[in-house]
Fold:
Amino acid sequence: MSSSKIHTNRIVILGAGNVATHLALALKKSDQKITFIYNRTINSAKELALKVGADYSDKIHEIPADADIYIIAVKDDAIDDISRNLNIHNGIVVHTSGGISIDVFQKRFKNVGVFYPLQTFSKIRAIDFSEVPVFIEANNAETKKSLLHLAQSISKSVTEADSEKRKGIHLAAVFSCNFINHMFTIGSELMKKSDSSFDLLKPLILETVNKALELQPKNAQTGPAIRNDKTVQENHLKLLEEYPEFEKIYRFVSESIYKSHSKKEN
Amino acid sequence: MSSSKIHTNRIVILGAGNVATHLALALKKSDQKITFIYNRTINSAKELALKVGADYSDKIHEIPADADIYIIAVKDDAIDDISRNLNIHNGIVVHTSGGISIDVFQKRFKNVGVFYPLQTFSKIRAIDFSEVPVFIEANNAETKKSLLHLAQSISKSVTEADSEKRKGIHLAAVFSCNFINHMFTIGSELMKKSDSSFDLLKPLILETVNKALELQPKNAQTGPAIRNDKTVQENHLKLLEEYPEFEKIYRFVSESIYKSHSKKEN
Structure:
């Protein structure tokens, strides 16, 4: 951690999707050298390669064997297959998945690790990568040091996390990202049914989030479930009769809110 | 709507909780005259009355009978009881609840209505009331006109909504506010279990919300459920074994995400 000068790595990115794209752009910005983009569809490989000034291919055997770091940023279930077919010398091989263990690499490479950025990425949205927390794991001390340096070159928030800890964080992220987005989808559907625009919920949503982040969510809970207001809840369930999935969510989330908070008082 | 000058009403507020407080402060700021605060505990009545320069009492028969507008901003299940005991001349009586019908007033008053601000209020947090959507209902045209004027004096977003429409909006708000806060509570619990701070989720949460508001939530959905990634989901359910309520939520929200999006393709 004492080295103030950032070492320039020759980096190969495997994948050209949302994570691969944002990571490649952030690394290029911090003067790392992206030498090669591999992707199974050539058009996306080319598109990203042009952005970062790299060579590219859709053939895995064309990947140069002498790079310093290989970052596999593909769908979870493709990581194993890609790493099985990757032939390299001594570089570090990492994947970027929250939910996949470092053991996915088996004994295929000498230096392996995980480089997990905790964020939801879309190609069409700019991200300030310096604010994205990155979690690092490695199979040896030298590799860990290299990965920590690499992560610190693009993010202010770098933490070590083994595979078990990372899986817990990933699960927390599913609730705090994927699941809240679905609550918004349901909200939007119900607003449409009431001939109203989802936009009318914006001030409420922004205040809810700011309040939770400032007060801690457990202290910010309001609504009929925490008050155990059965009359309002029965009315709501009646309105949800035509949406059986939303009705189930309403029941179980309300029950969980009530139980989480009545436990607190014990 | 043609009157550009804002009529000054003499207003009585019944209640001194979160909604009553924010509403009273916003009305005072727009030069309406709050003459009286009633609350069943005298200390809160006094506290709010001092803030807005009003008289106050914890005795309902001490409320002046000649005000223009009576705003009942109390818990849902107390509205009926308070309105039953309220003796007034010709003023307008409204409640502020999303989930309660205008019929709660029965035939007790000549002019009744609803004044529903769509926001989550806490005494300790400042709110820009001009951004809060207000939904108005009334039992006659003259009352509706007065309430629209009153609402427009404090908010840029005023909409008419009958009780049925308002209940739909309130239900959408429960999903978009109360339920997302519970998702954050679960996220926070799982982070704690992984020896990690909830703060690490902040950049993810802020990006998730901004993305949903810009792209519409249905277009912003990501994660294992929409990909129908059973391996990741089974791993997550294993991690949730010690949290039976969270496990149920995980199952049903995942199922609902998958179904909502597979329907879209039909």
The first helix of chain B runs from residue 18 to 29. Chain B touches chain A through 90 residues (CB under 8 Å). Chain B has ten helices and eight strands.
